[in-house]
Amino acid sequence: MATNGSGTSHGIARTSRARTEEQRHQELEKIRKYRELEDQVRSQAAQKEFGPELFQLTSKLLRLNPEYYTVWNIRRRSLISGLLSRRSDGSSPLTESPISSQTATTQASSAVSSSSSSDATPPSHESQTTGKSGTIAEDSRNVDGEHEHASNKQQDSDATKAAAEKQDLDVLKSELAFTIPLLLESPKCYWIWSYRLWVLEQAIQRLQVPVARRIWQEELGLATKMLTKDRRNFHAWGYRRHVVATLESASLGGESMVEAEFDYTTHKINQDLSNFSAWHNRSKLIPRLLDERGADDMAREALLNQELGLVREGLNVGPDDQSLWYYHQWLMLNLVDHVGKPTIVPHFTLENRVTYFMREIREIKDLLEDYKDVQLIYESLVDYTLSLCQLEERQPNADEKGELVRWLDKLRKLDPMRSGRWTDLERDIGLKKLRQKQTQ
Amino acid sequence: MATSFENLPEELQLATSAHVKYIQSLDTRKDEYDYWLTEHLRLNGLYWGLTALHLLGHPEALPRAETIDFVLSCQHPNGGFGAAPGHDAHMLSTVSAVQILAMINAFDELETRGTGKAKVGKFIADLQNRQTGTFAGDEWGEEDTRFLYGAFNALSLLGLLHLVDVDKAVDHIVACANFDGGYGVSPGAESHSGQILTCVAALTIAGRQDLIDTDRLGRWLSERQVASGGLNGRPEKKEDVCYSWWVLGSLEMIGKAHWIDRDKLVAFILRSQDPENGGISDRPGDMVDVWHTCFGLAGLSLLEYPGLQPVDPVYCMPKTTVQRVLGQSWKKTPLSSSAGSI
């Protein structure tokens, strides 16, 4: 297929568009079948015939074209108005009113409260108080705007409830299974990812908490699988963060997963030091990790040392890897830009901070013994020397100025593409004047 | 600047007439399966094609009346636009509709034959999450900083930005900022050049460029240029012509476009064009498409390639359009980090 996630061609070799008469004929036949299917789906949807037949047709069409967002929406409408046991979603698009645009989770609870008030059949108080775990699931069970279900509801018994929930579970599981091959084929397709999240939200709204929780837990496995196939897929990383946050949330009776997620980034980094997505996630997890561990000053400093050691190990063998340097910058920013932000070592005195900067600068200078022509080394030396001055609220001293001039000269030679940046930098730190003085 | 491009060998000259023909041919390919598979992008595609034609100096190459008819045929009673007739309304196609109508100066048609501006504005404004400030793409609730930018882009063109909580949206963008100066899809997400343009442009429209760490962001963005001259979207990823827009447009807005090698990027984009059949691809030798054609040309325009119309880095439309609609367009304020002019 010539289109990928963004519906555009990426990495597909340019070939002649010329076709034989037979190829053209075959393509026209393919188009005819596709359009016939599309017409069927659209006309049934226009007449609001959201039955099993339309549902099956959407499966067929989405397998041919998972980018067809309108068909994903038709599929959602089919589920809401038939296959799923009851409507819990008062903000259903069938009403053609735009949503209040809250996140799906909050939407669920507000929709529940707004639709219960206009509900044809008021829920019995008994059933409302039966389950303590998960008010959303319990409430949504009692919400049903459909008149045809009203008589069923009156005879609501534990048995029918259980049967309905079993049906929902089966439907939702089958939806999750449906999207897997599509995701494997189009891992960057926004619509599939967002449909899948919608299905998962339905699980929270319609199923008992432990059941919903099991479903969400399995999603971690999917995120892991997708990130094994493509370690940088930002859809999969975002999905993973969302799944983790939901599993941690009260709606699934969760608890913190920060340790496990931190270990996951270690695992990904050990497999591949250049995986900046993993480094990035690590930088987001560390402040929380320390807080939740209740780390004291010593433990915090130990973690900083551990992280600096980890990056340094990488830099010793791959000093031209941007991912490592970006993470190193984040660690160093914790020392300089620490006011009002979550930071690794809030207790550090100025003297501590200066000591760390001087130590890192020394370590990076050592790299120059083995790697004389790696621009990122010089870039970091300039950056950290200026940060050190900023920390001590002073101008570079004579020795430092000499070094900065040398490093910037080296950067111009090694990295002429960014010469405009080096010129600006030289001007900003007042080295231009210094250089002029030296040459006079 | 212009002189250096004229010295390029013939194969690195811009194939203007081939590109115009390529874009004109896009709607005639109904005997190709791919034409039907991409219908969900039709209105976006029209915006990409029309922008490319305007930048090439051939704004009339697509017939104006038919363009208006098609755009209006995609509108729903609630004011939103779908990708094509029969497709559900969505933020992305609604923004494209507004941009197309802006470029061909047809907002009055929206009043007389469409639902009117006010309903379009309401459709967009209703997609704001009033708790967090961000925007959903449609009624099903997917949220992304792309949609926030789209809302700001279209609403400001319509003169209806007051319909949304701008401060809340700005707070949300700030929450999406990372230590490297960049921005992601949502709070906690990795910096990505596409998302960076949307966040920087939205902050520029809101007049809040003061919230951007321009130095750190400029450094990160400039490091997207790789040896081939092309730009990548994230560290250690492959270069791609479309980042000639996402990266360079962001650099332009923060006054640091001179931090990359312009000549090398021009050559990379031109090597990615199909000089015979027209169109630009992600990398040299790959299949062309209208998306890369639009953003490749917009990049070349920012690079002041001779003969191209100047593009506005905030709106990705000709500066003349933005000037006509808003009374002013984005102005380069070199070496300053002052707030945007809009």
Automatic annotation (TrEMBL), chain A:
Keywords: Prenyltransferase, Repeat, Transferase. Pfam families: PPTA. It is an enzyme of class 2 (transferase). Transmembrane segments: none annotated. Its EC number is 2.5.1.60. GO terms for cellular component: Rab-protein geranylgeranyltransferase complex. Gene3D superfamilies: Protein prenylyltransferase. Belongs to the protein prenyltransferase subunit alpha family. PANTHER family: GERANYLGERANYL TRANSFERASE TYPE-2 SUBUNIT ALPHA, PROTEIN FARNESYLTRANSFERASE ALPHA SUBUNIT/RAB GERANYLGERANYL TRANSFERASE ALPHA SUBUNIT. This is Geranylgeranyl transferase type-2 subunit alpha. It comes from Diplogelasinospora grovesii.
TrEMBL record, chain B:
GO terms for cellular component: Rab-protein geranylgeranyltransferase complex. The keyword Kinase does not apply. Signal peptide: none annotated. Binds 1 zinc ion per subunit. Keywords: Metal-binding, Prenyltransferase, Repeat, Transferase, Zinc. The keyword Metal-binding applies. It is an enzyme of class 2 (transferase). It catalyses: geranylgeranyl diphosphate + L-cysteinyl-[protein] = S-geranylgeranyl-L-cysteinyl-[protein] + diphosphate. Residues 14-317 form the Prenyltransferase alpha-alpha toroid domain. Its cofactor is Zn(2+). Pfam families: Prenyltrans (PF00432). Its EC number is 2.5.1.60. Catalyzes the transfer of a geranylgeranyl moiety from geranylgeranyl diphosphate to both cysteines of proteins with the C-terminal sequence -XXCC, -XCXC and -CCXX. Belongs to the protein prenyltransferase subunit beta family. This is Geranylgeranyl transferase type-2 subunit beta. It comes from Diplogelasinospora grovesii.
